[in-house]
Give the backbone structure.
Amino acid sequence: PEWSVLSALIILVNTVVIGVETQLQTQHQLESALFREGHGQEPTNFNETFFTVAELIFLSLMILEVLAHMYVQRKDFFCGREQTWNLFDLTVVVLSLGMLLLQNMPVSFLRAIRLLRMGKIFRAFRVVRYLRGLRS
């Protein structure tokens, strides 16, 4: 139970961080576009360092979680009753690692790839299911 609560908390915090980063980036891009068009003030610089470090930390924790589940569940990781969620988590981790490796690709390609980060947010649905189970 403690591991599940910790995992749920990490997923929720990661979801909030992704939401805040998306909001700040969108706001910065909008302000930049308005400034280029001669409307509004010059936008302040958007520093992505915190979000980059946070993403690396969350990715490391996700990798640790998946590896721990693989070790504990062994073949049930792929064949047990939680196999769908396990494979979803594994897919999110693999795609996140791929995104990390592809960061030096052209900007337009990166914009398309960033949509894959939404998969991390979908992990929050697992938290909701877990919290419902606590009520019972």
